[in-house]
Design goal:
It is a single chain. The protein is α+β, with helices and mostly antiparallel strands and 453 residues long. It has 3 domains: 1-51, Dna Ligase, domain 1 (2-Layer Sandwich); 56-253, 2-Layer Sandwich (Nucleotidyltransferase, domain 5); 349-450, Alpha-Beta Plaits, CATH 3.30.70. It has helices spanning 34-46, 57-68, 106-117, 121-131, 146-176, 197-205, 226-232, 237-244, 259-315, 320-356, 401-410, and strands at residues 11-20, 25-33, 76-81, 86-92, 95-101, 184-188, 208-211, 362-374, 380-393, 423-426, 436-450. It has a 5-stranded mixed sheet with strand order 5-4-3-6-7, with helices on both faces. The radius of gyration is 38 Å and the shape is elongated.
């Protein structure tokens, strides 16, 4: 919160550990306003595309350079010259340092050409793309073409301002970050394709300057034309950096997915469980319907048997004793059925009570009754407790989620509050690759359910 200039609930943030010493730990912290990221992710969702990663441009470019130029020693400076800003990325051993500069941009050059030639934006942009180059300084002979000369000088003025900021950043990196001066510079971004850009920075900074090739160690498919690769190589560094995260671990891996997108993805993952749960409820309902239907058939069958028997016994008084015995058997069966229905009703209430107290993201795997003897009822066999085994998604679980669930059960009138009766017997910590956490809770019943005979 101290390093983010916005309320923490209004930003999307992530971090990356970058090593450190015994006394301190280096951390890269990235934060961005949620509304800005959501304005981009909403456009992607509108195209029915699945969003997996929202990366940060300097970090993606860092990963691409690390993969393609792993043989470089010392400090390397990557200059990503874009339309609205310039990103400076310092790579040295396992270090990452980045600065964003609002100078030396393509739009700034276009704006200067608009003022110089009094042109609209479209015409100035076309003039830049057609004639732009960095003018020679010092005693070099000027261009014979006056338009080309004026455009190139405009570009040089913009690049001179950028050169001053680059030198300041290099000195800051060396003095404040403990780094060294760059041995080489890699140019990237759409603005870097302006002619003689590499010569300008080589002259000013006295280091070798190269154009980045993000496909240096990447095999290009046959369906991709070499001309397309050459024309777009300068702006493909970030794209290559993000793509590398799908095939291999990368030095910097942050993901700025907003909470709304994460919630949608979690819901999609839970959909199969919701469907299974719905099918399970339908199956239970069908079982109850079949049960009552069968019970109705049995009742009808028994009535059909009793009617002729009663008529026969009414006419034959000698068989009265046998009728009384049959009646007693029927009463016993009815009592047994009544006890079974009462037991099932009690279990349904217990199960519903447990489900009503389950937090979001939790489900039950097994439900095992525990038997015991009721001393106050002449040692009658009964179910005195339940062993509940379940799971909960890691993103829904905190250190107290399972304990709060246990305490919630203890506060119910259905279960015992005694810690020896209602307790957590198993709650192992999840592994690094687990997405769920398992637990087992023994719950004592406040009113034991008598086992039917």
């Amino acid at each position: 919160q101290q390093n983010v200039p916005f309320p923490i609930n209004e930003v999307v943030w992530d971090y990356q550990l970058m090593g450190g010493s015994e006394d301190e730990l280096n951390v890269v912290l990235v934060a961005m306003k949620s509304e800005l990221i959501e304005s981009i992710t909403d456009c992607i969702s509108a195209l029915n595309l699945t969003l997996e990663i929202v990366d940060v441009a300097p970090m993606a470019l860092y990963n691409a350079v690390r993969y393609n130029y792993g043989d470089f020693d010392g400090c390397t400076l990557v200059m990503d010259l874009g339309a609205r800003s310039t990103n400076l990325i310092f790579l040295e051993e396992n270090r990452f340092f980045s600065r964003n500069l609002p100078v030396g941009t393509g739009n700034a050059i276009t704006q200067q050409i608009m003022k110089e030639f009094e042109l609209p934006f479209e015409a100035a942009e076309e003039l830049k793309l057609t004639h732009a180059s960095v003018a020679f300084g010092g005693a070099y002979e000027d261009y014979s073409d006056k338009v080309l000369s004026r455009v190139s000088k405009t570009v040089r003025n913009a690049m001179t301002r950028l050169h001053v900021e680059v030198e300041r950043s290099m000195n800051f990196y060396r003095t404040q970050q403990g780094g060294t001066l760059p041995k080489r510079i890699l140019l990237a971004g759409g603005t870097s394709v302006i002619q003689r850009m590499d010569e300008f920075f080589k002259e000013k900074l006295k280091v070798d300057v190269y154009y980045i090739n993000p496909f240096r160690n990447i095999v290009i498919g046959d369906k991709v034309a070499d001309e397309d690769v050459l024309q777009n190589a300068q702006i493909m560094g970030e794209t290559v950096g993000v793509a590398l995260r799908y095939v291999m671990p990368c030095p910097l891996e942050v993901n700025m997915l907003p909470a709304k997108v994460i919630a949608e993805k979690n819901f999609e993952r839970k959909k199969p469980f919701f469907i299974i749960g719905g099918l399970g409820l339908i199956f239970v309902a069908i079982c109850w319907i079949l049960y009552f239907f069968r019970m109705g058939q049995l009742v009808d069958e028994r009535i059909d048997i009793i009617k002729p028997e009663v008529q026969r016994l009414a006419a034959v008084e000698q068989q009265l004793s046998r009728v009384e015995n049959d009646k007693k058997l029927l009463i016993d069966d009815a009592e047994t059925l009544t006890a079974l229905i009462a037991t099932k009703t009690a279990w349904a209430e217990v199960i519903n009570e447990i489900h009503s107290r389950m937090p979001d993201g939790m489900w039950l795997m097994t439900f095992k009754p525990q038997q015991g003897m009721l001393q106050d009822r002449a040692y009658v066999e009964a179910y005195t407790g339940i062993e509940v085994r379940g799971m909960i998604f890691n993103d829904k679980a905190t250190e107290r989620t399972i304990r709060d669930f246990r305490d919630s059960l203890k506060s119910s009138e259905f279960f015992k509050e005694d810690a020896n009766e209602t307790k957590i017997t198993l709650s192992p910590l999840p592994g690094p690759n687990d997405y769920v956490r398992e637990f087992t809770i023994e719950v004592g019943l406040e009113n034991p359910i008598v086992k039917p005979k």
